[in-house]
Design goal:
single chain; mainly beta; Jelly Rolls
């Protein structure tokens, strides 16, 4: 697990491209047979990828977190973006096809990840946040989620937003997690943009062709910066930063948030005239 420390917005005004990528971009999340995690001190979110092949994988962070097991004081959200697999929670198995999600409550001692076919492994994307209460584990099927349909063809942002870890589907302490799918011909997400001083966010971009690139915009509204990202890479967005992007083709992304509340529309909207 890699650790990323928090950054003051005044600092990034002086960052060059390499420094910006070092602090806010995570380039490798999914590697066959590996667990790749990042621990950001921004609201202490842990996110990353678990890609089991021939052997099952688990997450062991007792020493790093000062606990006896990973979810002793944390909750966990999972979305599978790969092949078919399963997750075993304290002996109970949950089948996970592509786009299936799972909310795992605090206190779950054993979390095992498996793939059905090592040649087409599951890719489990995880978000985890500190938790003060134990809520029930819930399996989430994308086919049972009524998406929010937003955007217009004229503004190139027709998209469907699927809310997974959200009060519509399950209770959580502070974690929210969902998936946004852009339609063919649309490339802009989260524009007009916003911040939410009360919550941080992480974006994972995927469903992209090898040559496709996302230009992910971040920074204060009057001091914007950008990251050029390719398939299956993630960006950390502190609460003071915008988080929006455009790309050379349509794509899908997973958003995960944690912080003071779980109110999805608690946003501080930014007027287009205020962007610099």
């Amino acid at each position: 697990m890699e650790t990323r420390y928090a950054n003051h917005p005044e600092e990034i005004k002086r960052y060059n491209t390499d420094e910006l990528r070092k602090h806010f971009l995570v380039e490798t999340l999914f590697e066959a047979g590996k667990v790749h995690l990042t621990y950001t001190h921004v609201d202490r979110m842990i996110f990353g990828g678990v890609t089991p092949t021939t052997e099952e994988l688990t997450i062991k962070l007792d020493k790093e977190l000062g606990v006896t097991y990973f979810l002793e004081r944390r909750e966990l959200g999972i979305i599978n973006i790969g092949g078919e697999g399963s997750i075993i929670l304290d002996g109970e198995e949950y089948q996970m096809v592509g786009r299936d999600g799972l909310y795992v409550g605090r206190g779950t001692k054993e979390v095992l990840f498996r793939s059905k076919d090592a040649s087409n492994p599951a890719k489990f994307y995880i978000n985890s946040a500190p938790a003060h209460h134990t809520y029930p584990t819930v399996k989430i099927d994308i086919n049972n989620i009524k998406p929010l349909e937003m955007g217009e063809p004229g503004t190139l942002n027709v998209r469907k937003i699927y809310q997974y870890v959200h009060p519509n589907n399950c209770e959580s302490c502070q974690l929210q997690m969902g998936l946004t799918m852009l339609q063919a011909g649309s490339v802009w997400n989260t524009m007009p943009c916003h911040t939410h001083e009360r919550r941080m966010e992480v974006y994972l971009y995927f469903d992209m062709e090898p040559e496709t690139r996302v230009f992910h915009f971040m920074g204060e509204p009057n001091e914007t910066r950008h990251l050029v990202m390719k398939n299956e890479q993630a960006a950390i967005s502190p609460s003071w930063s915008i988080h929006t992007g455009t790309a050379t083709s349509n794509y899908t992304f997973i958003w995960g948030m944690c912080g003071e509340n779980i109110t999805y529309d608690d946003m501080d909207h930014v007027a287009m005239a205020d962007l610099r």
